[in-house]
Amino acid sequence: MDSPDGRQRTARCGCGALSVATHGEPLDVYACACVRCRARSGSAFSYAGLFKETAISVAGPFQVWRRTADSGRTLENAFCPSCGSTVFFRTEAWPDIVGVAAGCFAEQDFPRPERLYWAARRHAWLCLPAGTPMIETQ
Ligand SMILES: [Zn+2]
Ligand SMILES: [Zn+2]
User: Of the ligands numbered here, which is closest to the C-alpha atom of 38?
Assistant: First the structure.
């Protein structure tokens, strides 16, 4: 059954111990091919949806590690202590927003990225669907 605010989905880590339920559609969806996002995800780019803090609920254990973004602000990555998947993140830049790793959703209808950041640092083969803006930097 749909809640009044729409679609519900659940993002889960690799082992299933940590999950994030989201309510409604993401405010924004993007991909990023910067070196830090590639290293964090272990893939060619990160792919994430942004939600209001009030639109998500976290279940299960997690730990965080922090890094300083190019902007100078702190970015906090929350991962499952058992399997290491990064399931969500927060940034000092947007205090009431949580980013959820789109690859962690089993649902196949998660919206596509609206743009790719750091296109200048992407792997040479990487193309997004026609019409997706490729932002050279941040
Ligand atoms: Zn896990
Ligand atoms: Zn990035």
Answer: 2
- Domains by residue range for the chain, with CATH: 8-31+42-111 (2.170.150.70)
Following DSSP, what letter does each residue of 72-127 receive, concatenated? S-EEEEEE-TTT--EEEEEETTSTTEEEEEGGGB--TTPPPPS-EE-GGGS-TT--
Q: End-to-end CA distance of the chain: give it in Å, rounded.
A: 38
- Residues around ligand 1, an ion, CB closer than 5 A: 13, 15, 17, 80, 82-83
List pLDDT tens digits, range 70-105: 778 999 999 999 999 999 999 998 999 999 999 999
CA of 137 from ligand 2 middle (Å) equals: 9
Q: How far is the CA of 69 from the centre of ligand 2 (A)?
A: 9
Q: What is the pLDDT of residues 10-65, one digit of tens each?
A: 999 999 999 999 999 999 999 999 999 999 999 999 999 999 999 999 999 999 99
Gap between the Cα atoms of 31 and 63, Å rounded:
23
CA dist 46 and 103 (Å) reads: 9
